[in-house]
Amino acid sequence: MQGWADKILDIDLSSGTVETYPLDKDIARLFLGGRGLGARLLWDLVGPHVEPLSPENVLIFATGPLTASGAQTSNRFSVSTKSPLTGTILDANSGGWWGMQFKRTGHDALIVRGKADRPVMIEIGSEGVIIKDAAHLWGKTVFVTTEVLEQDNNKRNVLCIGPAGENLSRIAAIMNDGTRSLARGGAGAVMGSKNLKAIVVVGNQKNQPKDRDYFRFMLYETGKLIKASPLTSQALPEFGTVVVMNIINEIGALPTRNFQQSQFEGAEAISGERMTDTILVRNHACWACPIACTRLTRTSRTAGEGPEYETTWAFGAQCGIDDLEIIAEANYLCNDLGLDTISTGNTIGCAMELVDKGLIESDLRFGRAEMLHDVIRDIAYRRGIGDGLAEGSYRFAETYGASELSMSSKKLELPAYDPRGMQGQGLLFATSNRGGCHMRGNMLGPEVLGLPRLVDRLASQGKGGIVAVHQDSAALVDSLVLCKFTNMAVAEEYFARILTAITGETFTADDLMRAGERVWNLERLYNLREGFTRADDTLPERLLSEPVAEGPSEGFTVNLELMLEEYYQFRGWDEQGVPTPVKLAQLELDKLVEGAGT
Amino acid sequence: MIDQRLYEEFRDIGRDIYVGQITSSHGGNLSVRIGDRIVIKRRGAQLGRLKPSDLIETKLNRKDSGITRASTELIVHRTIYQKTSALAVVHCHPRTAVALSLSRDEIVPIDVEGSYLLHKVPVVAAEFASGTQDMADLVAEALREYKIIMLRGHGCFSTGQMLEEAFHWASCLEEASDIILETKLLGEKHIEYRRHSESYNKW
Amino acid sequence: MPLVKLFGHLRDYAGGSEFEIAGQTVGEALIRLCADNEPLHNAIFDQEGLLSHVRALLDGRDVELAQGLNTALDDSDQLAVFPPIAGG
């Protein structure tokens, strides 16, 4: 393989058919791989009439031309589907080893359609593709399943769901390599609805660059940059992502108790510094990654991986809990059960506010750390209040007539930043194609860390362009597929030349940025086709009309309307947020929508 | 309305460009893209002494009254914004780089910082090297692949997410060009110290 | 007196996380904090001022948006200094 494997694997679980066909060259050039390829294929395969948990929905696991090449962080992959939580297009992204191994089986992407009539697993290896019975695994947790299927990093890798996905929780994740997650948006439930328990991959093909010398030169150059940046060479390996807990709290943007306050008195107790001093054992890396941001941790009772910043917030400040060990164990538990930690913690915090306001009779109150693990299990197994929580915060709160207390956008739970204290982040949440999400162009860099340069986080003018460029950049990285932390040190012009070295076809930096923009616009078109409108580019009422009560962000709400207008203009969309014909032609998306009547 | 902070950015970088001797008093220009508008230096304004009234705002995709007072190179800046993802453009006349551009098709830095940051700077040529759509297209097309390019005999165009970034490339180019010139003046045998140095001109 | 709070590995260099330090400006207080502590000084400053990617927040607002190291400091102010960090 030189870049692309030029092969798509297509499995229909209803009929048991297994097919392969070539990857269209134009699609590869325009959408690259990963998230972009997933979006393009999903556009054709899953239309507005399809229910996310029905057999007509598909799962598309996709790698990119860089995957398994040995370029730094070339281990990542994505899954694309229609989300059972949001109803929007969904892609989720994960690291570890599975994506690299899947690429080594000689495929760019795997499409899974239909539904098996009983629990099955898929094995992809040198004997070909086998669909096997998985009744003995159904009901088993992620760690047990992974062990039973004999995961062996770098040679044989396991992707699976846990009880949460089997029980169709809308916030269920798909896990790979035991502790890596395709977390947001409920892809785990889609996999569960297909009776698909696991996919095991064993590959031996190599992704070899066309121009080996140039490729080696490029890796040398990007390696230099990664080593030279204090973020990728010191901050991330030493402290991991939790290190931002204190600075987010210091600026007054740490959502506390379901976004009722924006500073948490227990922030220090759950900070990166505290983690390093107490539960951290050492750091760890995914395949081909020199950054090594993963935390290996141990509590007084058990051990595992993580937690990351978002998780620590979700079970920490969001729930009013300051016990770092309980939080870390909650993370291990979510990994084992196959749950998205952000949605899980955010939803539990939402429930706690409903209890506070007397809308629910329960002991599940803010600060009740001793209840946390049981509630998480109840969500995975749909027991008691867990059954409602498993639907996600919006549907949960809605049943009590309090949907405005769900801190979500397009029903995807918001992560660990109060946008009233970070205006650009608010615009990002409101316009993200998969719902309220920070991974689509995190404004943490410009608005807090000063990367590439500091912008005033409380200013709303001038944010439209920065957010759009960050979104395109993130979409690009998700399509190559690489880790966004590389992008903190390495610019697009390097990615373009690495891609050129591997494939032998010339790609410019601008080609790549344009691809990112194209992917973003296609996702937008998908959601428009599903019936989403400008009205859905919004945030919870609390963030739009309740000013922060105290702290450094006091008095602020999110000035969304102004930012949205500037954003649509920058993107070349009309006032309703619809890409104009000129913009579509520029991105070569016009032919795609011709027949669709959009 | 042009933000005070934005004006200060233009003023400070304009000053650094002039004082750093990479352009003459009224030459060169700077611009940024905000949404669907461009903010650019007024025609005839002194780069090293920009006043708030020296900044013109004009629409990205439509001609409006702003163009009458905007820099003569507006057409190039506009084309760059239309064809690339740049959010800021710097154009200046770094004298050594200009001299080098007269006798080669690419400037390949031999110093550490230059090769690390720029690797290679291509030289493009246009018959009318100022203010025409043809030249604008040529420059914009080249900037899709490189963050800084030379227009033979004229000067450099560089892009970035902000003015400071685009200025950085221009300043780095001139330093790298000066070093090339000085080694030529020294006329001594070059000792290659960089790994993969033969690959820089393939950038 | 103004309170200076340190984070990340700056705490290791300083041997503590909170210090009451006198100073009329942000720069003054920080220089005083780093007196006789070269490792701490080098972790915060370079020849031109604050080391790049080091963030100094005065009551939660980044001083770069004010007057940088010349930003005035009151007795009741809290200054928080962070080394280069990344997150997500």
Helices, strands, pairings?
The complex is a heterotrimer of chains A (598), B (203) and C (88).
Chain A: E1 8-12, E2 17-21, H1 25-31, H2 34-45, E3 59-62, E4 77-82, E5 89-94, H3 98-104, E6 109-113, E7 120-125, E8 128-133, H4 142-148, E9 157-160, H5 163-166, E10 174-176, E11 180-182, H6 187-193, E12 196-201, H7 212-228, H8 230-239, H9 245-250, H10 272-277, E13 280-284, E14 294-298, E15 303-305, H11 309-315, H12 324-337, H13 341-356, H14 372-381, H15 385-389, H16 393-398, E16 408-409, E17 412-413, H17 423-431, H18 444-449, H19 463-480, H20 492-503, H21 509-530, H22 541-545, H23 560-571, H24 581-586, H25 590-594
Parallel strand pairs in A: 1-6, 7-12
Antiparallel strand pairs in A: 1-2, 3-4, 3-6, 4-5, 7-8, 9-10, 9-12, 10-11, 13-14, 14-15, 16-17
Helix pairs in contact in A: 1-2, 2-19, 2-21, 7-20, 11-13, 12-14, 17-19, 17-23, 19-21, 19-23, 20-21
Chain B: H1 4-19, E1 29-34, E2 37-41, E3 55-59, H2 74-83, E4 88-92, H3 95-101, E5 106-107, H4 112-117, E6 121-124, H5 133-142, E7 148-151, E8 155-160, H6 163-186
Parallel strand pairs in B: 6-7
Antiparallel strand pairs in B: 1-2, 1-4, 2-3, 4-8, 5-6, 7-8
Chain C: E1 3-6, H1 10-14, E2 18-20, H2 26-34, H3 38-44, E3 45-46, E4 49-50, E5 55-58, E6 61-62, E7 78-82
Parallel strand pairs in C: 1-7
Antiparallel strand pairs in C: 1-2, 3-4, 5-6, 5-7
